[in-house]
Design brief:
Elements (H helix, E strand, L loop, with lengths): L2 E3 L4 E3 L13 H8 L10 H4 L6 H7 L35 H92 L1 H14 L11 H59 L24 H92 L1 H14 L11 H62 L6 H4 L4
Antiparallel strand pairs: 1-2
Helix pairs in contact: 4-6, 4-7, 5-6, 5-9, 6-7, 7-9, 8-9
Length: 490
């Protein structure tokens, strides 16, 4: 017979008998596995069958070894496969012994729980009676300590309020002084810009007038003085900002301490007036185990005292800084005014020198122009003389050329021939001497023209320098911030 099976339930080729509703007894199944597998608690994935309905399907079957199919008819029992039970494929969780032991254990635990409960009730009644008086005494002592604590908080709160008022007044005074210093520092920008623009304009001078004169030295000095004043002002301004920050830090510490004192006063005063019949009381389990304290009475008082001392020291430093700023404003204003006047005096002197040089150049230029006119007339006369020598030279050379056509022995070097040759040489020498004189005159004219050009250029240079110093520079230096503005009042 051929056997075809599934993982847990067997399927046979011959027809099955009609299934019954019979399930084998638990004891029978247990006896099948007793002493074969030790007890181990198995997870759910291993304790259940792979197919949930496998158990019931296997139990509902009533297998038999009798042949039911036509294919099995005629076979002897020795040739048929023996029947194998499906019970070996099933697992159980516990044995009956485990079941009885579990029940006994539950009984014992129940009895122990009842005994402990009775003991707890007796101890609780006795503890309530014993602790009543102790609780009342402790509560009265706590109320007294809270009252003393409220008095201490009120004292330090008044000290903090007084110091906070003084610190706020000092901070406001230093803020006003800082604003004065900022206005004074801003007023120095205009004089510095004027001095720098004067230096920039004077760089546009031309030629020899680009001289490092006293005006330029005084302008550089003025720039250095103003920048030095600005640096000192900026340093004091940085110190004022740092001091204001320190004042605000001290003030913030005072305010925070004061707020904390007020909150602590409100909380402790509320706690002092709490009674067993007060509204709003509740259980806060575990709060007694939370130690949120960060100070003791000595460190608590020292903390507030240190805040007050720090505030006082910052107030002293702030007042000293205000005096230093006041003195600095007066000193810097005087220094800038003094240097401004020195620069103006140097400009006035330099303008007078340039104007005098310009006047002298104009005089020399007029004389040079007159001489140029004279030399040009002389050159024209020389050129006319050279041109006048042309016809006589042509006549002499023409005569000599004509005489070369004389025939044969008539080509005689006679007196006329010699005279004509001497005449040509004489005229050539005169023309060469006149041309030499013409070249000398032209060279002289070139020198005069060059001198004229130099004088004209120098005159333009002086005129440009006068325009820069007198119009541009002195035009910008007509105004200067007043002392009141330089000290920051306006």
């Amino acid at each position: 017979m051929e056997l075809v099976g599934s993982p847990l339930t067997a399927t046979y080729a011959h027809p099955r008998s009609t299934p019954t509703k019979f399930l084998p007894a638990i004891s029978t199944m247990a006896s099948s596995y007793k002493n074969r597998f030790p007890y181990y608690p198995l997870p759910q994935s291993f304790s259940l069958p792979w197919m949930p309905s496998a158990y019931y399907k296997a139990a509902a079957m009533n297998p038999t070894l009798a042949p039911f199919s036509k294919s099995s008819q005629g076979l002897t029992p020795s040739k048929m496969l023996p029947f194998v039970s499906n019970r070996t494929n099933l697992f159980t969780w516990y044995t009956p012994d485990d079941w009885y032991r579990s029940n006994l254990t539950n009984y014992k635990e129940s009895e122990a729980s009842r005994h402990n409960a009775e003991h707890l009730r007796v101890d609780t009644s006795r503890m309530i009676q014993d602790k009543y008086q102790q609780t009342k005494k402790t509560q009265l002592e706590s109320t007294k300590n809270l009252g003393e604590r409220v008095n201490d908080i009120e004292f330090w709160r008044s000290e903090l309020c007084r110091e906070l008022d003084e610190m706020m007044g000092e901070t406001n005074a230093l803020t006003d002084m800082k604003k004065r210093l900022e206005r004074a520092l801003a007023e120095t920008e205009a004089p510095l810009q004027v001095a720098q623009e004067c230096l920039l304009h004077r760089e546009k001078r031309m030629g020899i007038d680009l001289v490092h004169d006293n005006v330029e030295k005084q302008l550089f000095t003025e720039v250095d003085v103003i920048r030095s004043c600005q640096e000192r002002m900026q340093q004091c301004l940085d110190k004022a900002k740092a001091q204001l920050a320190s004042n605000r830090v001290a003030q913030h510490e005072l305010e925070r301490d004061l707020v904390n004192k007020q909150a602590a006063h409100r909380i402790d005063d509320k706690c002092r007036h709490l009674r067993n019949t007060s509204d709003g009381i509740s259980y806060y389990r575990g709060v007694e185990r939370v130690d949120a304290t960060i100070s003791v009475p000595e460190s608590w008082a020292r903390f507030t005292d240190d805040n007050i001392l720090c505030s006082q020291s910052e107030r002293v430093a702030s007042a000293k800084l205000r005096d230093n700023i006041e003195n600095l404003l007066v000193v810097t204003a005087n220094e800038m005014w003094r240097q401004f006047n020195e620069v103006n005096v140097a400009f006035t002197n330099r303008i007078a020198e340039t104007a005098d040089a310009k006047s002298k150049i104009q005089t020399h230029l007029a004389k040079t122009l007159q001489e140029i006119f004279q030399i040009e007339m002389n050159i024209e006369a020389i050129r006319k003389a050279i041109r006048d020598k042309g016809p006589p030279l042509k006549v002499a050379q023409t005569r000599l050329d004509e005489r070369t056509r004389r025939p044969n022995m008539e080509l005689c070097r006679d007196t006329a021939q010699l005279c004509l040759v001497n005449e040509v040489h004489e005229i050539d020498e005169m023309i060469q001497s006149l041309q030499q004189r013409l070249r000398d005159a032209e060279d002289t004219l070139q020198m005069l023209v060059r001198a004229k050009s130099v004088l004209e250029h120098d005159l333009a240079v002086k005129a440009n320098s006068l325009f820069i110093d007198q119009e541009k520079c002195m035009g910008m230096r007509k105004t200067f911030p007043s002392t009141v503005r330089l000290v920051g009042y306006v």
